[in-house]
């Protein structure tokens, strides 16, 4: 991805502060023309600056109040096929390949502790998984955010 310029950063910051703002409102707020804002937004979309809308949906609203992080230790030669198999488990929201003692870190949601036990069993049943370690999220301390990075970019 190409680095963003000051106008892009200002536009993203304004969108983060008012995600429902119209193109016209953003243009007025930033002192830009509507066409400029639309063109910049199209460029930002092509640069993959926007995450999917799906990331804004709260799993709690879907009945999944429990969040856990599951570290997975795997047989390295089976990692690619394992990732596909894990993606078929709907309660796994995201997964990351890691350095260190664990190979994967999965963010998982569950209905309750019994459901988490079931999900962990499905993960353990996948071909190539040696073992898992589960950590229950007790409370979100720092919500997902990008605004501080946008502020930092506009300073420099």
TrEMBL record:
Entry keyword set:
DNA-binding, Transcription, Transcription regulation
Q: Which PROSITE patterns match?
A: HTH_ASNC_2
Q: What is the scientific name of the source organism? A: Paenarthrobacter aromaticivorans
**From what superkingdom does this record's organism come?**
Bacteria
One matching Pfam family:
AsnC_trans_reg
From the Swiss-Prot or TrEMBL record, give the protein name.
Lrp/AsnC family transcriptional regulator
List, for all copies, the residue spans of the domain called HTH asnC-type: 4-65
| Residues spanning the membrane | none
């Amino acid at each position: 991805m190409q680095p963003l310029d000051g106008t892009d950063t200002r536009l993203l910051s304004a969108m983060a502060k008012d995600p429902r703002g119209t193109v016209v409102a953003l243009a007025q707020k930033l002192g830009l023309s509507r066409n400029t804002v639309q063109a910049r937004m199209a460029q930002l979309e092509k640069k993959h600056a926007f995450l999917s809308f799906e990331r804004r949906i709260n799993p709690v609203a879907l009945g999944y109040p429990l969040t856990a992080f599951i570290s997975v230790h795997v047989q390295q030669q089976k990692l690619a096929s394992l990732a596909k198999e894990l993606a078929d488990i709907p309660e796994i929201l995201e997964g990351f390949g890691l350095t260190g003692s664990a190979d994967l870190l999965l963010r998982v949601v569950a209905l309750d502790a019994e459901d988490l036990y079931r999900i962990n069993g499905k993960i353990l049943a996948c071909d190539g998984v040696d073992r898992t370690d589960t950590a229950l999220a007790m409370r979100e301390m720092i919500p997902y955010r990008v605004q501080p990075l946008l502020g930092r970019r506009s300073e420099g």
